Fold this protein.
Amino acid sequence: MAKKAEKKARRVAVIEGCRIPFQRSGTGYYDLMAWSLGQFAVKGLLARTGVSPQDIDQVLMGCVANDIATTNVAREVALGAGLPRTVPAHTCTVACLSANMAFTNGANLIETGNADAVIAGGVETFSDVDIKVTKRYRRFILNMTMYHRPKTFADTLKHLRNMSPLDFLLPERPAVSEYSTGLLMGQTAERLAKRLGISRREQDEYAVMSHQRAFKAIQDGVLEKEIVPVVAPGKDKAIAHDNGPREETTLEKIGKLKGAFDKRYGSVTAANSSFLTDGGSSVLLMSEEKAKELGLTPKAYLRAYAYTGQDLVEELLLGPAFSIPAALKKAGLSLSDIGVFEIHEAFAAQMIANVRCLNSRAFAKEKLGLGREVGEIDYDRLNRYGGSLSLGHPFGATGGRLITTCCNRMIDEGQQFGIVAGCGAGAIGNAIVLEAAQA
Amino acid sequence: MKNLTVEKNGNGIVAVTIDCPDSKVNKVSSGLLAEISGLLDSIAEDATVKGLVILSAKDDNFVVGADVDELGAMKTRDEVVTYITKAHTVLKRIESLPFPKVSAIHGNCLGGGLELALVTDYRIASDSPKTTLGLPEVQLGLIPAAGGTQRLPRLIGLQNALPLMLTGRNLKARKALKLGIIDEIVIQHGMKDMAIKKAQDLAGGALKKASGKKGLQQRILDSTLNRFLDTTPAGRGVVFSQARSQVLKQTMGHYPAALAIISSVEFGFRHGIEKGLANDIRIFGELVMDGKSKALRSLFDGMTALKKNPYKAQARPVKKLAVLGTGLMGHGIVSVSTGICDTILMKDVSLDAAAKGMKEVYRGLDKRARSGSITRFERDVQYGKLLPCAGYAGFAGTDVVIEAVFEDLALKRKILAEVEAATDGRTIFASNTSALPITLIAEGSSRPENIVGMHYFSPVPKMPLLEIITTDKTADWVRATALELGIRQGKTCIVVKDCPGFYTTRILIPMLNESMKLIEEGAEIKAIDVAMKQFGYPVGPVTLVDELGIDVAAHVAKGEVRKLFDARGLKASDGYTKLFEHGFKGRKNKVGFYVYDETGKKGLLGLGKKKGGRPVNPDVYEILGGSRKPFKPEEIQDRLSLAMINEAALCLQEGILSCARDGDIGAVFGLGFPPFTGGPFRYIDAVGAKTVVEKMRRLEGTFGPLYKPADIIKQMASKGRKFHAS
């Protein structure tokens, strides 16, 4: 049981993280619901750490495109993974930062003494998106069955009056654009690239690098540390690797693609944007004392984190550029102290833009009110094993992957500090500073 | 009253709650019957009673059937007849009450319990998975004599009722509703009030007894063929003769109860229900006194006793299980564990190999979900417990590791070493070997006290037996935990001491060896199988080897078990090895004693099945040599059965078995030793140890030391004692 809140905040330890292999939507997890993806990730985490489900106090899961059948998907994940029914669970949704939020909320529960051990992570599937019927059809059904039930045949006809036959047939276009601006995220990336003068070649080079790094990491078995293999129910083949990274991704090949969001002058293409992905991730957090009590060796400690909000058009994708300095300030560190960067790659253009802004004195002055630039991020320290562009981006789950990889990299690379950062729809930014526990 | 609570409400509905004292379950006993009888007397005098409701106060049973112990204690046929007559009188009186009777069923409603419910007018049952209904008497060598044979066919039709009674199968509420055994399904809470309301409505005539809704197809069938078969004497004649021939074919006439059920139902239809009921009393009296029923009941008692773990206090929980080798055995073991463990690691040489095993587990779970015995979510939860592994990462904290890899000592030792390196002192290593001595596997182990044998039988989900083998070093908590795991997996477990072949394989080997010798001497393969089936085995020994694998038989015959028999001067045949060297593996590679081509498979509606079974593979005779000559079935039966029986006695004598009961259960449920005999030890008791010894002496003269009777049988013979006191 969680102890009463103590005055001094308790240190939060990251014990272990893991994820199931990320799969391009419509492939490996085609028949699975999102909760089931989380189930495999959480189950794998428990099996791997040997921690008893009875020791977990709460489960938090991020998810964006939630299935209406499992609106609190975290609860189904927890039940599905065999956690006791007495363990509460809730779902966080902050677009692509949903798992980050699950993680930091979980950390807060521990810091404030409301929990000793928390599983935080996320799930996402785009293989079975809820597709809506048209608004007019919805209205018709609701009127007919609930709110304005017809008493006579004439009433029924009245309801039918405004309907066209197509209303019954065609589904509604899923809303993927920013609600407040009506802009697609790709269009925003396109604006950003043009505004900062990021060339098509630069973007493609970054995308190719991401794929090559990811492909090599899979070949070298580096990612096995963070992956629990899955056998989809009823299948007789194991899914053990991410299927997003493509070795054949070359500059020449992707250079031929047309702009995906601006057919005439566009530089943002399908190849330098992240693609629809299914996946699940989970991270085990504990108070330092609890970890000690259970004889577990933490991989890292949470040092600080920050969330920021930005302009919805011009800064939508600049979350890391705003949140990293904020988090560093709380951590009392500077960018040069950080040895490991794991930043969510929504678009190659967005990555390059964030790195540039962080190293720009003008940006620092104008937007952050700082006297000098935040600092330069060495691409060698950034997303070494690929990122969302290559490994894929299951919205709700990505944060869990970044945290897990960051912890493992700090150990492998002997670094003391790491940063996880990302941007999300709604122009939210987040950065989390982690401190190695095994350095 | 000790067993009953009676309440009457303002509307004249009497609710009778059955609650047998000092027991978790309600059983029909003389005491209960007497109380109901007294209650009926008082109801008869009370003109204000308008309805009767029967329910149970137990958590998860209505009435589980007759008190078998009470029956077992009866010494004479007359006692049995008096008892069952009393039951008939009470049930008849309930049935004739002039107002509506309703039973509210939650939990097991079996045998006498269902027969009680059948005399009420309306049955509501809970939707709980614990609710099961059935007439399992046949499994105890009895018939449902308290009206079941008469009332059930009249309620749900002959064609539905006969299979239920002949198999003794239990039904869940949903299926029972479909068949019309119950009238309504409700939630388990507040059933008393619902039943009272139902009785009130029925009494007020406000509610007619609902006739089950039937689909169009069902209605058409009802109107034609089924109606003919169920309701006309000629049609019923067809059903009875079909049932009879099927039972005879399946049981070789060894189970009189099944045939008695058919006769009883037939008699009732021919002469009316009153005479039918009277006839049942007579049949029941005979069956209870029959040795076969007694033997079957002894097995039932043995199984019930073995469901309890005497070492339970020492058992540790098994939350995390690992199974190495995910083939037929491995995934079978996993399949019976998904409901009781938190995490199950399935390790094989590759993830894809593990995936194949996982698919089989899922198949089983999905089947259960489709049948409604678990929800789809529960299916997914249980499947989610499985983790495919190609290495030992994640093995830390495993409570039990069960290896089910190929029967090779070196391989098993290697795996043991790997497991020990990946785990610590809390982890039990269980070997699912059928013959390799556990002590040998444990040689060189750093934690021999954690090692135990768990010998499952294939296919694991279907076979009821688990043989647990302890060595001199096995720790008490390890034995206790393995036993608890086995019991929770739904297995009937016998705990035996380590020796080559343990108990079951060890007693099988002499029989298989002797069967091979018979072939070499010139016996027809079919003659051997037929003779042993006539003796009561579900499959003949030659077919058994084809199923187990000739490679396995050859492997086992060569190994440690052989040393055991060599030491006794027994000549072992090398026939299996010879066949194996010629590429024979049995059914698995379709090269066996019999021919396994696809045409032998069951065709549409079973019509395509060839008469006379599979043809024998002529190559076998060619390889083994010799010429065919006739053997008397009795000679085959004596030689094979006594080879097994004597070896069982030796196991008891040597302390491999801790008691005769375990030997009986092991032989029947592991090897198919004729169940109606009650097992090898009950068989000796029934035939007489003296007769057995004499027979064996004769065989010893001709066939050598294999038939040297075990000292323990000789002692029984000389002292005129029995293995089982009762």
User: Anything to note?
Assistant: The longest helix of chain A spans residues 200-220. Chain A has two domains: 12-129+275-434, 135-169.
